[in-house]
Design goal:
This protein has helices spanning 5-22, 95-100, 112-120, 128-149, 157-175, 188-198, 204-211, 225-239, 251-262, 271-282, 291-300, 306-331; strands at residues 26-32, 48-54, 62-66, 72-79, 103-107. It has 340 residues and is α+β, with helices and mostly antiparallel strands. The protein folds into 2 domains: 5-120, Beta Polymerase, domain 2, CATH 3.30.460; 128-322, no CATH class. Strand 3 (62-66) and strand 4 form a beta hairpin. The radius of gyration is 20 Å and the shape is globular.
Length: 340
């Protein structure tokens, strides 16, 4: 069966109609993510990112639904109350971009137009004032997580996951300056160089690779890492305790994108999704079942004595992001961090 963008959008609508028919708590549903782009496929695969808005508190926050071996639906649940007050979503770095330009595919009662109008109306959503507020929120979150890392004595999966969370918030604070949307997990190292260059910080792309330990991989990602990652990913998914992203239905979604990127000129491009998902998997496995993750992190300098150096490097990266945001504020006659 030939799967196209149009095929997956049709499946998104069919899935939503079936769910809404059986669950009267679903008020609305909209499509986000890669299917809103002209070329959503990476390694020949993509997923269907749906958001279900519920009248009350949802029973879960995220659900993965397998369609075929290569394709799945990734459903995020939000309670209607999360969109109140709607005007404040303009400065929310996650929900704001999400509601600004999705594809509405279902609505039981009037919801979407009102919320979207509140996000788009008044001050320009992509103007410097609101953009800076969203990016400063991301930077603040990243800096807060970094502070927690200063007291780390022993480095394991939980600490590395915390470190990566800070890195992600920092790069999204740069990424949202011009594009408006947070960086997608699989494409992070593919898209960040362009977004950094748009912010006149092209050198930050190399800085990000350094934070991930990529400069230690002169020959690219070692071949043995991929099967080791797959084995530990699968084991973690089978525990039923892992982050929703660690799901057997998502195995091909990651693996095929890794293979495609490794076959390209940018052999370090898979490093972020590989390391991030591997760390989430290792977080729910016994230490004796994470030998592959341990070896990879040791080579990247993310455990042992190297972790402190990475935290110092992250401090400098966060400082550079703050300087960038201050420069943008000053250029637009807005308050800088020193005047807030």
């Amino acid at each position: 069966m030939r799967v196209t963008r149009e095929t997956l959008i049709r499946l998104a609508k069919e899935t939503t109609q079936a769910r809404a028919y059986n669950d009267k708590d679903i008020l609305a549903a909209y499509l986000i993510g890669s299917l809103l782009t002209d070329d959503p496929f990476l390694g020949g695969v993509t997923d269907i990112d749906l958001v279900f808005v519920t009248a009350g508190n949802p029973k879960r926050t995220r659900e993965i639904v397998k369609l075929t071996g290569d394709f799945h639906v990734d459903i995020t649940y939000h309670a209607r109350a999360e969109y109140n007050p709607a005007r404040e979503l303009r400065v929310n770095p996650w929900l704001g971009p999400e509601i600004y330009a999705p594809m509405l595919i279902y609505e039981r009662e009037k919801f979407f137009d009102f919320v979207q109008a509140a996000v788009r109306g008044g001050f320009e959503f992509n103007g410097p004032a609101l953009t800076l507020q969203r990016c400063r929120t991301l930077l603040s979150h990243g800096r807060g997580v970094w502070t927690d890392l200063l007291s780390v004595e022993k480095t394991g999966p939980a600490e590395v996951a915390h470190y990566l969370k800070s890195v992600y918030h920092a790069v999204c604070a740069v990424g949202e300056l011009n594009a408006g949307n947070p960086l997608a997990e699989r494409r992070l190292l593919l898209d960040f160089p362009t977004r950094a260059a748009q912010a006149d910080r092209a050198g930050m792309a190399a800085g990000l690779i350094g934070l991930l330990g990529g400069h230690n991989l002169a020959e690219g990602i070692p071949a043995e890492w991929i099967p080791d990652w797959q084995a530990e990913f699968t084991s973690a998914a089978e525990t039923g305790k892992a982050d929703p992203r660690i799901h057997t239905a998502r195995l091909a979604y990651y693996r095929k994108s890794f293979d495609a990127m490794l076959a390209s000129d940018n052999r370090l491009a898979p490093l972020w999704p590989l390391l991030h998902t591997w760390t989430l998997a290792a977080s729910v496995l016994p230490e004796e079942k994470t030998h592959g993750w341990q070896a990879a992190c040791a080579e990247l300098g993310l455990t042992g004595g190297g972790f402190g150096e990475k935290v110092e490097g992250l401090d400098s990266f966060l400082d550079e992001v703050e300087i960038l945001l201050d420069e943008m504020a000053a250029a637009n006659g807005l308050e800088t961090s020193t005047s807030l």
